[in-house]
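Lines hold sequence, tokenised fold; shown next:
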Amino acid sequence: MREEAPVRGRHLDAWITTDVRRPELACAVECELITLHVHGKAADHLGALLDPLLVSGVPTYLWWLGTPPFGKRELLDALRVCDGLVVDTAQFDEPDNSFRRMAGMLKVAHHRMGLADLQWSRLRPWRESIAQFFTPVDRRAFLGGISELGVDYAAAGPGNRIAAALITGWMASALGWKLRRATAGADRVVAAVYEGGGRSIEVDLRPVPQNDRVAGEVSAVRIAGAAGGTFRLSVMHDPQRRRNARETAPDSERRRGDTAKVLLTMLEIGDSEPLRHVQQLEPDDEVALLLELLSTGTHDEVYNRSLAAASELLDRF
């Protein structure tokens, strides 16, 4: 669904077609597409228009393209007949404000409604890489010793900070951190201080100009602290490869292709030699992400907690 304004007229246009979707990482799917163009006051009653078209017993998801009109009657009315709302916060206009309104909407939506975010799905490799560092039993104590968290994201100015805030909210909600203060400086860096387990955790969200990245895309996460020894974890997307002395610029460009879809994880524990792990990223095809969400459902309590914590952070400045 997409809101198109200004829309003139008061009539309703409808048609039905068949289509075959062919995602990169899944089988082809045949489907029927019923398209409604609703004009004027009829848009206030989308639920009544959609309900007769739905198949009983089959979950219904509302995929809103662009920025949903949070707080408007047409969205809340449409959600009455839906089991979940699917959005992509990477595409939000006025991202900070829209994200906060979305978090507030969960408080007024019906209890059965789920919420899914394609951007959250794109962050899964980052969350997995971070979680894997703390998985071994001898590293569990590090969770209680984190003192620094830094997230870089692609932006020339403040940009879309939602992905960086979600990473922060995910860690804060999982580890019981409480936000004490947050400010956005003249350099557009967000500096926040959390408290957890009797210690302070310093967090910074830093915009980094990167013309080859999607606006708001996370490019690096850094975690450091001490618990029986110091540790540092760095996760980087598409890391710059070092050019050896005999390598020319064209050679370097030809070799760049194999790093375009990887995460490089660097582990440093005490005085030990750094450990490296390279993870190949799967294509983040929109259709494949959507099919994955529909197969697993939109009720994700981890996302809901991360959303609430991220919204609290963005609400401080």
About this structure: The chain has two domains: 12-118, 121-283+298-314. The two ends are 31 Å apart (CA to CA). The mean pLDDT is 85. The chain has nine helices and 13 strands.
